[in-house]
Amino acid sequence: xxxxxxxxxxxxxxxxxxxxxxxxxxxxxxxxxxxxxxxxxxxxxxxxxxxxxxxxxxxxxxxxxxxxxxxxxxxxxxxxxxxxxxxxxxxxxxxxxxxxxxxxxxxxxxxxxxxxxxxxxxxxxxxxxxxxxxxxxxxxxxxxxxxxxxxxxxxxxxxxxxxxxxxxxxxxxxxxxxxxxxxxxxxxxxxxxxxxxxxxxxxxxxxxxxxxxxxxxxxxxxxx
Length: 224
Known about the structure:
The chain is α/β, with parallel strands linked by helices. It is about 60% helix and about 10% strand.
């Protein structure tokens, strides 16, 4: 039986590059300053808990799969190191695992990632200028198709190359788990559904109590 730790991640500003400013602006607009600041604190503590968990792990031989990584080997090492320089906690955790014997692997398809980036940039331009060049239906259909294609490719990468034990750092709204083979025992480091629900309550007015409960869950310690 192969094993995989599934980490449903929250993307940090350092991971968003040129899109970070737009994401922050929209977050402030939807949530308001106080709620958005609390969210940023939650994100920071969430990553502290993830970091604490992996700091105690025997990383020798651990196979690492990373959201948005279309290569392996030395080029992957270079990308991870550059991400650490930008301030990515996710990449810092990955680099630490690699330095302690972890093996970074190709996870995603470059062409699909380029399509996703192009789509996201288009949507951010539309939001910035108050225009809607694509219909709502077309936006959703395109986004759903791209995410499903990415998830299938990622799962296939894991299915084909995971030898013994690994870890996948993947955005919480991806559904890679549903495409993994039955012989892979999956441990959700944080429950994927609860991480998704946290985001849903964050952007939905009037759910303060539920949002507070989920926020507490996000920053809770992870038992090893």
